[in-house]
């Protein structure tokens, strides 16, 4: 038996991240399109650029942040490394490298998905079709996730896949929250207005969390409730807390199950992050400043990834194993 | 019994020489040797079944299913990637849905012929790098081998397990109008194409189960297993459960799909040079647990890129120090380094003599008559008969640089003449073989197209030949160049029991 190649571990981790990233970006574009149907629409698309710190790159190629241009930039623009097509392409390239390891079905689905995506044009993004495009992306990514769950052999590789997906999802949920809370901060008279509530509504729906939220909060919808739900609520699979919890568990099982000594720093970071999220209440989060908390969470998630890379992905190779 | 009477009546009646009812009614082999029709005329029951079944299909359905089959190749990623400045384009090796069949009797000859060839090649390489008897005896000119660019002095005096150098060998074989097989070329370095043999069969079973239904076709799916066993044979002796890896130049290599395929079939890691390193004259791979010993490397990287310390210092694909480990016997390499001396087109001309020298046998499969232009006589003959000969550069692969005399224009012949006069040692010439044909699906009909055959032999302690091999088909009408870079495709190859 040979051990998992370090390069493969990195590839699996990133394969999962890129697919999750594409799915979550589709969710964010979907919800932003809902926001932008009002009079302030144009401004909203520019805010997506700020969210991903892409202003500079975007404006280098496009003079105006029109809805059509920003949407194209994030979906089909192969020149933008953070577009959906670039993410799926990177996922496919990793899958191609990993073909000796992953199931044929995983590879075939990603290959077809990428080729269909690559054949799409601006027409597929035009106003009434964007929602359909986003559904296509979400479905493609979820099909991948399902095939992976059902066919991927459960060895070390599986754990790296799970880690990649959890960490990326946690990061993206923080960004989804920022779309509404940080960038679309309503004026004081808007808070609690039907307009404000409908935006929170859309955020929840884009994370597929509306119904779960309603079960928890049968009436009312406040910023604190929704933010608390997406950040802290453990039973909701896209909440930051759930993702961090799952990543911590995965890494614990990986290290124990395969007697690996690496990953200690990453695990410590995850434990700290989990303890922090466990200790917060929604009201306290909003009061203390959601933006600062989201920044902190993002920085810690990056530190986890860096820890995994240095211990497992072949950047260091200190000891020879038997 | 009525059935017997019926059969008796059939054997007495004149046998049809081809199906004449349906799709194949207008099919003519145009004077060429036809692989399927020949078997049909011999009343081979499987060939009859294949052609009669094809005859009963309609063209539209056949074309639809062919298109589906090609789409499947794209979807499965059975592709090679062509890189342009702007884009990466996935291409498939065109697949023809009409199989090529080989009778059991023909296969027995081919199998024996390939095994003989591999035995001679291994004996030759071992001799050249050790005692050099064949050179001293003047059977093969010493300078032809020793000044060959594929000669590796690093291999001198090195003993390899079981005397095997060409663990994976591909023999390009054609059949002439006389019905005899001829060896056109040996591939003893890193022959490719075996993945298509297995994948074409899978594709055929999915797309045309009715065509193969209940026919006694020999399976090809155990190639990976046989290869893994042979690679186990060349591990350092002290290793009980060897770690085998496949070393690929990476995803940009046009044969990358095949590397994936083989790694999967064998269940071994597909590594790149950057995954390996040498410490204390042993090869290790970088894993999540640190460094792990590697015992056998099936390398799909050419000699000169294998180890920048020993060969091309600019190589980023190889592993520094690998050659040192190989010489110390701490790692097995397949194929061995330096096998290129045996598949050189100039050495090829001497192969019948090489077979006789080491094995004391006549070649089971003959060479195509070959004129060596480095020899005065060969050059004169070639220049005198340029319009009748096929002139091939000795160093090129992929069908490049070939001048087909009978098909060449006057200008092309003049260019060829000039090149021959300037660098005669660079060329050999052969008569133009009227390659056999196979019924092949074209845009409008089923038509004859020329084919060759590349059987694959795997050798560890002993030699095993995969039944059949890769049938390449020249899809352009009249063309005899089957290489994928020159409009060639492939067919499933059925060895009949």
Keywords:
heterodimer; A: mainly alpha; 2 domains; globular; B: 497 residues; alpha+beta; Dna Ligase, domain 1; 17 helices; 22% strand; Alpha-E domain-containing protein (chain A); DUF403 (chain A)
Q: What pair of chains forms the biggest interface?
A: A-B, 30 and 29 residues
Structural class of chain B: alpha+beta
Work out the helix count of chain A: 15
Beta-strand percent range of chain A: under 5%
Tell me the series of helices and strands of chain A, N- to C-terminal: HHHHHHHHHHHHHHH
- Biggest β-sheet: strands ordered side by side in the sheet of chain B: 3-23-22-19-18
End-to-end separation of chain B in angstroms reads 29 Å
Distance between the termini of chain A: 11 Å
- Largest sheet geometry of chain A: none
**Strand portion of chain B, in percent?**
15-25%
CATH architectural grouping of the domain at 369-431 in chain B: 2-Layer Sandwich
What oligomeric state best describes the polypeptide chains here? heterodimer
The residue-averaged pLDDT of chain A reads: 89
Q: What is the mean pLDDT of chain B?
A: 92
Got a strand count of chain B? 23
Domain DUF403 (chain A): 4-313
InterPro entries (chain A): ATP-dep_Glu-Cys_Ligase-2, DUF403
Protein name (chain A): Alpha-E domain-containing protein
Organism (chain A): Ferruginivarius sediminum
């Amino acid at each position: 038996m040979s051990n998992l190649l370090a390069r493969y571990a990195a590839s699996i981790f990133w394969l999962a991240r890129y697919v999750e990233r594409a799915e979550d970006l589709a969710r964010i574009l979907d919800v932003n399109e809902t926001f932008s149907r009002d009079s302030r629409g144009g401004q909203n698309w520019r805010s997506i650029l700020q969210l991903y710190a892409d202003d500079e790159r975007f404006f280098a190629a496009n003079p105006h942040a029109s809805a059509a241009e920003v949407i194209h930039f994030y979906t089909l623009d192969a020149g933008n490394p953070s577009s959906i097509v670039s993410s799926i392409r990177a996922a496919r390239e990793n899958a191609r490298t990993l073909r000796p390891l992953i199931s044929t079905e995983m590879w075939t689905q990603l290959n077809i998905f990428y080729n269909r995506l690559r054949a799409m044009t601006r027409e597929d993004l035009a106003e009434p079709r964007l929602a359909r495009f986003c559904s296509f992306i979400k479905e493609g990514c979820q099909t991948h996730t399902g095939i992976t769950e059902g066919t991927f052999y459960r060895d070390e590789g599986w754990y790296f896949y799970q880690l990649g997906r959890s960490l990326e999802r946690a990061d993206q949920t923080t960004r989804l929250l920022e779309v509404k809370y940080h960038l679309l901060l309503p004026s004081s008279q808007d808070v609690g207005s039907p307009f404000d509530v409908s935006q929170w509504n859309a955020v929840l729906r884009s994370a597929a969390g509306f119904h779960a939220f309603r079960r928890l909060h049968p009436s009312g919808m406040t910023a604190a409730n929704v933010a608390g739900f997406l950040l802290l609520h453990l039973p909701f699979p896209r909440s930051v807390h759930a993702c961090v919890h799952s990543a911590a568990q995965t890494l614990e099982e990986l290290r124990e199950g395969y007697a690996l000594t690496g990953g200690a720093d990453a695990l410590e970071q995850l434990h700290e992050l989990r303890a922090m999220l466990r200790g917060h209440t929604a009201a306290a989060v909003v009061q203390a400043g959601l933006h600062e908390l989201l920044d902190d969470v993002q920085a810690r998630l990056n530190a986890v990834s860096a820890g995994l890379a240095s211990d497992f992905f072949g950047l260091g190779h200190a000891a020879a194993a038997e | 019994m009525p059935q017997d009477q019926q059969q008796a009546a059939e054997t007495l009646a004149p046998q049809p020489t081809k199906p004449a009812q349906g799709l194949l009614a207008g099919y003519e082999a145009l004077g060429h040797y036809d692989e399927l029709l020949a078997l049909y005329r011999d009343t081979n029951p499987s060939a009859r079944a294949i052609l009669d079944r094809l005859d009963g299909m309609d063209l539209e359905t056949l074309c639809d299913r062919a298109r589906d089959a090609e789409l499947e190749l794209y979807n499965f990623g059975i592709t090679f990637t062509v890189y342009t400045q702007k884009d990466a384009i996935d291409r498939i090796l065109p697949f023809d849905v009409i199989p090529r069949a080989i009778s059991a009797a023909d296969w027995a000859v081919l199998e024996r012929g390939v095994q003989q060839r591999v035995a001679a090649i291994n004996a030759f390489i071992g001799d050249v790098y050790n005692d050099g008897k064949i050179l001293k005896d003047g059977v093969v000119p010493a300078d032809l081998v020793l000044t060959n660019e594929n000669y590796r002095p690093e291999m001198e005096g090195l003993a390899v397990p079981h005397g095997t150098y060409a663990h994976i060998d591909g023999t390009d074989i054609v059949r002439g109008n006389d019905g005899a097989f001829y060896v056109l070329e040996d591939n003893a370095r890193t022959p490719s194409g075996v993945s298509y043999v297995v994948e074409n069969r899978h594709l055929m079973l999915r797309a045309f189960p009715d065509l193969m239904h209940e026919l006694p076709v020999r399976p090809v799916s155990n190639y990976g297993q046989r290869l893994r066993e042979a690679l186990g044979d060349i591990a350092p002796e002290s290793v009980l459960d060897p770690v085998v890896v496949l070393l690929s130049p990476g995803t940009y290599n046009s044969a990358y799909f095949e590397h994936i395929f083989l790694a999967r079939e064998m269940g071994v890691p597909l590594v790149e040079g950057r995954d390996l390193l040498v410490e204390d004259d042993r090869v290790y791979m970088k894993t999540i647990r640190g460094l792990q010993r590697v015992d056998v490397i099936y390398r799909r990287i050419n000699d000169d890129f294998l180890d920048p310390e020993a060969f091309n210092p600019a190589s980023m694909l190889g592993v520094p120090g690998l050659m040192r480990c190989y010489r110390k016997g701490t790692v097995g390499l397949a194929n061995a380094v330096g096998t290129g001396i045996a598949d050189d087109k100039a050495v090829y001309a001497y192969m019948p003599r090489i077979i006789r020298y080491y094995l004391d046998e006549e070649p089971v499969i003959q060479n195509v008559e070959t004129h060596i232009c480095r020899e005065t006589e060969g050059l004169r003959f070639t220049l005198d008969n340029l319009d009748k000969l096929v002139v091939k550069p000795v160093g090129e692969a992929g069908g490049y640089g070939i001048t087909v005399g009978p098909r060449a224009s006057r200008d092309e012949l003049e260019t060829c003449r000039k090149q021959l006069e300037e660098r005669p040692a660079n060329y050999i010439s052969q008569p133009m073989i009227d390659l056999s044909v196979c019924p092949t699906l074209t845009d409008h009909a089923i038509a004859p197209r020329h084919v060759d055959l590349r059987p694959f032999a795997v050798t560890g302690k002993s030699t095993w030949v995969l039944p059949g091999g890769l049938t390449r088909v020249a899809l352009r009408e009249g063309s005899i160049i089957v290489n994928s870079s020159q409009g060639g495709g492939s067919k499933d190859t059925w060895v009949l029991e």
